[in-house]
Amino acid sequence: MAEQVTKSGVFVCLGNLCLLPTAEAVFRKLVTEQNVSDTWRIDSAVTSTYELGNPPDDRGQVCVKKHGSPMSHVARQVTKEDFAAAFDCILRMDESNRRDLNRKSNQVKNCRPKIELLGSYEPQKQLIFEDRYDGSNAHFETIYQQCVRCCRAALEKVR
User: Which of 105, 92, 102, 99 is nearest to 46 (CA)?
Assistant: First the structure.
């Protein structure tokens, strides 16, 4: 029996409050709905140390749960292994993440993953996510919907 080719991606943001765990949960839900979850390895990581070991913001968890996207996430920091061989693609959330990730990837010989902006898949061309800690419940819903659009388009591209 032939081995299945596994695809892998890691979502990366500054912290772990809203956008990052939402994007990961949405992508997991999409691959499950499309019956390809067994061919994917999905993770998320932060570039800062602010929220290491902490769960996502309660408002984000409520929003994601409302849409039936399971969320079991605790923040971990990006490691050199993420660049060496662990992932095919790193999906970053904004420009500060690009700078941080480029700096880290330059420390790794033979950096493997492609570093992309998740918003570049946004059909409505809203490239950057407005990720505010002080956001209202409506803000978390907006983030969720943007994650759905971007993750759906990204998944379609690689399928």
Answer: 92
Centre a 10 Å sphere on the Cβ of residue 136 and count the other Cβ atoms it contains. 10
CA-to-CA dists, residue 91 to 50, 61, 138, angstroms: 20, 21, 24
List CB contacts of 147: < 8 A, sequence separation 6 or more.
Answer: 19, 22, 23, 26, 118, 129
> The tokens 């602010």 sit on which residue?
50
pLDDT digits (tens, 9 = 90+) for 86-121: 789 999 988 888 889 998 898 888 888 889 999 999
Instruction: Determine contact, residues 62/138, Cβ cutoff 8 Å.
Output: no
Q: What is the dihedral of CA 112, 117, 118, 119, to 10 degrees?
A: -170
Tens digit of each residue's pLDDT (9 = 90 or more) over 117-150 = 999 999 999 888 876 666 788 889 999 999 999 9
